[in-house]
Input
Amino acid sequence: MIERHYLDDCLVQLRKLKTQVDKAIAQIDDRQFFAALDPEANSIALLMKHISGNIRSRSTDFLTTDGEKPNRNRDGEFELGGEDTRAAVQARWEESWRLLFETIGSLQPGDLEKTVTIRGEAHTVVQALNRQVSHYSAHVGQIVLLAKHFAGTHWQTLSIPRKKIT
Output
């Protein structure tokens, strides 16, 4: 059944995105985790904080409430507070992904035709999931690029190393 395959593949692709970040940030130190390239840039910590906030908002009561929860402080996701240690950011990261995987894992093929709202705009469940995968992919790419930049010559590739395709 294509609907079940779609849901399973969403989980596979999202797990790959999370794994990329987890492997990338394992290669940097705390200073690099919080470093921004310029005053208008986001650090890896801020990007992870934003993704975590987005996931929590979108995944909580996914089928029954607007994906933009009234208690979400999106702007605050782009600010560091005293409570935003690396351990705390990573703990929220883990918890949000667990929630996302549980939410998608609980969906049934028939749910794909349902309508959900995000910021008052109607989306099919398929559109909402595609929107999430696309959004998180963009930010994961930013995180990986920053981690690679900071790790420099110590970077361990997350994919096939150059000139290693056989």
About this structure: Residues 2-154 form a domain with the Four Helix Bundle (Hemerythrin (Met), subunit A) fold (CATH 1.20.120.450).
